[in-house]
Design brief:
Blueprint: H1 3-42, E1 49-53, H2 59-68, E2 73-78, H3 81-94, E3 99-103, E4 116-122, H4 131-141, E5 142-153, H5 164-169, H6 188-195, E6 199-207, E7 210-212, H7 215-223, H8 229-234, H9 237-250, E8 255-256, E9 259-262, E10 265-272, H10 277-282
Helix pairs in contact: 1-3
């Protein structure tokens, strides 16, 4: 593991711990189109074993838990301990005894090989500094014939909120996801999945604008409840005012009355681990 990868993981862990409490209120409805398509394509079935990698506060994991029922089980893992804590509380409140959550890095899954029927990763892979390691780990923990369902942000030019990264980088070296939008380039995610051993790959692009009531809500989503929360936490009041003004200016063309309708694109992909994988390894 490189020093740069360790640094990025540490930044991600602390940043998402800070963002956790605000995350659902600012992002749940915005991410719903991608989440719904992922769940539709993943199609969790009663009795299945599901792993949700980069589970956050449990939006996908809890939905999957209801679908697999009491005879199934869902495990959610995330690099952020605070995210895992909030997800566990929600599972308890809903009485979902078939669900458990643990803090874990996506590139190093402490899970048995071939232990899951379905693996989901909704808008988390972009944050992992070593995508190939993560996808090979995902492949390892799926049973032969198991399914993977992924969602990532699309191309930078189609995600109006992407201005947040250069605005923050102009103030401090944030080291947050330098290649964040690369997975959204045409064919990139499918090629990585194919290289990790997945087959029967299907991919779709979803255009789903982000709606905000006003500039304050748009800025909170960008800075407080998202990937740059750690940098934001270290800004003084003057710097916060400056970066908020710059971001508001960057999204000005998508203003609709007092609110904003910011363009966004998602890529959703499903694939399978070959049913004969184990046989080929033994041959």
């Amino acid at each position: 593991m490189s020093l740069e990868a360790r640094l990025q993981r540490r930044i991600q862990r602390h940043g998402w711990d800070l963002a956790a409490d605000a995350y659902e209120g600012l992002w749940q409805s915005q991410l719903s189109p991608a989440h719904q398509r992922l769940l539709q394509w993943a199609a969790p079935e009663p009795g299945e074993r599901v792993l949700d990698v980069a589970c956050g506060t449990g939006l996908i994991a809890l939905a999957a838990a209801e679908r697999v029922g009491a005879s199934g089980r869902v495990t959610g893992v995330d690099i952020s301990g605070r995210m895992v804590e909030l997800a566990s509380r929600q599972a308890d409140a809903l009485g979902l005894a078939n669900t458990r959550f643990s803090r874990m890095e996506g590139e190093c899954l402490a899970c048995e090989a071939a232990g899951f029927d379905l693996l989901c990763c909704a808008l988390g892979l972009m944050y992992m500094p070593e995508w190939d390691f993560a996808l090979h780990e995902m492949h390892r923990v799926l049973r032969p014939g198991g399914r993977i369902a992924l969602a990532v942000w699309g191309e930078r030019s189609r995600c109006g909120w992407s201005a947040v990264f250069p605005i923050v980088d102009a103030e401090v070296s944030s080291d947050v996801c330098p290649l964040f939008f690369q997975l959204g380039q045409p064919g990139m995610l499918a090629a990585l999945c194919r290289a990790a051993g997945f087959v029967d790959i299907h991919e779709a692009r979803i255009n789903a604008p982000l709606h905000y009531e006003d500039a304050g809500q748009a800025c909170d989503a960008a800075f407080v409840g998202g990937p740059v929360a750690l940098a934001w936490s270290r800004f003084d009041a003057t710097t916060r005012a400056r970066v908020s003004a710059r971001y508001t200016e960057a999204i000005a063309s998508w203003r609709a009355g007092p609110g904003y309708r910011i363009p966004a694109e998602f890529v959703v992909l499903v694939a399978c681990k070959p049913a004969g994988w184990r046989g080929r390894l033994q041959a």
